Amino acid sequence: MFVVEFITLLLLISIFAGVFGSLVGLGGGVVIIPVLTILLGVDIHFAIGASIVAIIGTSSGAASTYVKDKVTNLRVGMFLELGSTSGAIIGAALAAYTGSASLELIFGLILLATLVPTLMKIGEEIPKNPELKGLSKRLGLTGTYVEKDGSLMKYNSEKPVEGLAGTWVAGILSGLLGIGGGAFKVLSMDLAMKLPMKVSTTTSNFMIGVTAAASAGIYFARGDVDPLIVAPVALGILIGAAIGARLLIRSRNVTIRKAFAVVLAVAAVEMILSSLGVSV
Amino acid sequence: MNLKDPEEMNVIIGKVLRYGVILSATVVILGTIGLAISQGSSDTSGFLNYNPNTVPHDGLDVSLGGLFNGLVSYSPFSWIELGVILLIATPVARVTISVLLFGAERDRLYVVITGVVLTLLLFSMLVTPFIPGFHA
After folding, report:
1. Closest chain A residue to B32 measured between Cα atoms?
2. How many other CB atoms sit within 10 Å of the CB of residue A264?
3. Domain boundaries, chain A
4. ipTM of model
5. Where do the domains of chain B lie?
6. Which tens digits make up the pLDDT trace of B71-120?
7. N or C: at which end does chain A have fewer Cβ atoms within 10 angstroms?
């Protein structure tokens, strides 16, 4: 394939990945990795390096809109980053001593299992609002955002410790495998903290850039961030994230939840297949 | 600009992210145009060789000196690398600004929280790559 063809093809695919990644808070690696390895025959290490860049691009690109429009909950995001960054360091340290295949299988199965509670509340537009008390109150984990019809949506959260534990697991996964953290972040906020779906995905989107940046140094130093691959990926992702961010503001929570369920299923299957030696 | 107004924080953080993204994209675009002009009709097979036995695996010089030389001689790869470094630096800038903004709000709890996050982030980015046994 010619360089120009390669760049054009990857740019278009990355735009698609950026749209999806910014809507569901997962960063687009789920799309980028299999496309690079299966369709374009790129080595998995280069694919993971590109995925790290894609995650950072989706995160910053979409968050600039989400933060300005106040859908992202900054305090929830910054509190939970304690879990994701410390987990990422532990994951990176564990990577030397654990076979990644068995862990990938375990995490893949856990992700698959989380499809059950996700599907059970698939039609839920707004969660039952918990009372703000205890640590959540002290940390100020509450917020408001403007819905697409102009109404002001006020929400509280609960179980901050469980949420922090979930994002810690997300961080370990990111540090260990370079991928997969976003899903656990969204699930922590959705299932444990009972935040509205849009707040969960956009706050996850806000956080994943930091988690990915934490491990970007090593991928860069190793030469896994190949310029020919990451140039179209970064540009496409940024374009896609800008489009996705505008779509989310106008979408219903139910729509975002359905998109998340689909991507969650794909991510779980990819991770299980990869652990079984099928290169995706 | 009233830094004590929590609403301002969203505006400022939004701007930090936007400017970081625009700057990085501009540099990546410059590099990509250069790449398309100089190597556009070459075959990709010459560029995508992953070599597990050498570091860096793609055979490109990722040291600061190598990057600088590449930028000065307008090597498209080096310009793309610079753009990617700017993209990676954007979340770091965002966390740093958050510490300062919570400081301006006199919100001690969140100064500590974001300060710890920044420390962990910098430790992971800059220190762990040099600790043997990390990132095997």
Report:
1. A231
2. 23
3. 3-275
4. 0.90
5. 6-41+53-130
6. 888 889 999 999 999 999 999 999 999 999 999 999 999 999 999 999 99
7. N
